[in-house]
TrEMBL record:
UniProt xrefs under PROSITE patterns: GST_CTER (PS50405), GST_NTER (PS50404)
Lineage: Bacteria, Pseudomonadati, Pseudomonadota, Gammaproteobacteria, Cellvibrionales
Record-linked InterPro entries: Glutathione-S-Trfase_C-like, Glutathione-S-Trfase_C_sf, Glutathione_S-Trfase, Glutathione_S-Trfase_N, GST_C, Thioredoxin-like_sf
Domain of life: Bacteria
Family of the protein in this entry: Belongs to the GST superfamily.
Alphabetical list of SUPFAM superfamilies matching this protein: GST C-terminal domain-like, Thioredoxin-like
Domain GST C-terminal stretches: 85-216
Domain GST N-terminal, residue spans: 1-82
Species: Candidatus Paraluminiphilus aquimaris
Protein's recorded name: Glutathione S-transferase
Amino acid sequence: MIDLFTSPTPNGHKVSIALEEMGLDYEVHTIDLRSGEQKEEPFLAHSPNGRIPAIYDREHDLSIFESGAIMIHLAEKSGKFMPSDVVGRSRVIQWLMFQMGGVGPMMGQANVFFRYFPEKIQPAIDRYQSEGRRLFEVLNTQLGKTEYLAGEYSIADMANWAWVRSYRWSGIEIDGLEHLQRWHKAIKVRPAAEKGITVPVDMRLLRDGNENSKETEDFIKGAQTMVQGLKKD
C-alpha cells in the first residue's frame, strides 16, 4: 500500500496518474497548501522540502519526496512503464528529467506571473510563456519521431502530460504543434490518466481553461495568498 500526500497540482497529478496506470493500491492524504500544511509536521517527515507530492511505501517503510524520484520508484516497484534495459531506461529518464528541469519550472513560473502575481510584470510573463512554448516545440519535434516520448508509453509521458495539459492556464499556445496535439489527445482518453487528474479533487474545468467559474476565482485567490506569503519569506 502507498500513502499519497498530494494536492491538485500538475506535480501531484503526475504521481496519481502513475499510481492509476500501474494499478497500485494507494490511500490519498490531501495537503492543504493554502493553510501551509506542507510546511508542518507530520508532512515534513515525508517531504523535508515542504513540497507536494510525497509518498510513504508501507512495504519498505520508505518515505519519498520529489515527484520524479517517486515515479521512478513506482515504475521499478510495479515493473511497468520504464524499460529495464540500459538504453530504454536512459531514454525514459532523460525525458522525465526534461519535464523536471524545464517544462515544470517554466510553466510554474508562467502560472505565477500570468495568473497569480498581484502585479502584471509583462517581461516576466513573456519570458516564461516564450520558454514554455520553446519547450513544447522540443516535445513536438521528438513526438514527430516516436509515438510517445521514449518510444512506448512511459512515466516520461505521464510527467510531461500532467503539465502540458494545463497549457491554457499558463497562457501558452499549442497551435501548429500537430505531434504534441496528437500525443496530448491520445493520453487524455486513457482512463487511468483521466482518473489521475481528479485526485485529490476534480480540477479539470479549471485546468482546461474555464476562467469564469467561482471555483476558478477561489483557486486564484488561494494561489495569490500563497505567492504573497512566499514574498514575505
